[in-house]
Amino acid sequence: MNASLDRASPFEESDDAFLGGRLHVLQPGTGYRAGLEAVLLAATVEATPGAKVLDVGAGVGVVGLCVAHRLPDVDVAMVERDRRLAELARRNAERNGLSGRVHVIEADVLRPLGATRELLAAAESFDHVLANPPFHIEGRGTVAGDPVKAGANAMPAGALDRWTRFLAAMARPGGIVTLIHRAEALAEVLTALEGRFGGAMILPVHPREGQPAARVLVRAVKGSRAPLELRPGLVLHDAEHRFRPAIAAVLRGGRALPLGGH
Description:
Blueprint: E1 13-18, E2 23-28, H1 36-43, E3 52-56, H2 62-70, E4 75-80, H3 83-95, E5 102-106, H4 117-122, E6 126-131, E7 136-137, H5 147-153, E8 154-155, H6 159-170, E9 171-182, H7 186-193, E10 197-208, E11 215-222, E12 229-230, E13 234-237, H8 245-251
Parallel strand pairs: 3-4, 3-6, 4-5, 6-9, 7-8, 10-12, 10-13
Antiparallel strand pairs: 1-2, 9-11, 10-11
Helix pairs in contact: 1-2, 6-7
């Protein structure tokens, strides 16, 4: 990552390398910036040729682009409400040679589905739906000074349920949804999934061995009635503060992070 980002103006962009330099992504110089969570989320997709993947709240497109790079036989759609970020996502797809399989839709997932004809036409058609929703609730904690960052980091109270309603509307019957969120939000995530998705598989993500999970990856299947499964935790760093080999293979080598089960 570019060490000078914090000194950049809101109108500048950085050109950041992901997957060990296999992807080069333009991001705003300040404000919300994609990182580790996006790459981990993308690495969970296990898809057959011809599958359709939807990246919800895509930002500059890191999740969808990582999926498209690793799986050359899938089509990826990305939904982003912020015009500037959506345009960067389009540019990123083109500059990485992925625009033929990656499509960006500018839309707000909190609005009725019928407000965007393209989304309505694609309802219930996606095999995999991915989401890295805002982690915080508006009005709680410090508000980010940058409006794009504030919008990406916080959502209105109760909006996670509305996000999940959108995910369910876009996934095909039997389709898979995968989210990454704060560990302390797990109960809220499971409540939002209830009645829409089942067979939830939870993968806690720990910074280091012996430390509490900071994030959770949650995968579930639309319409499933299978029971919940809690999987052994994923530990990111070793005792020397380096990424463990399996994690480095995902973040730098572009490898998959199979969750199994579905």
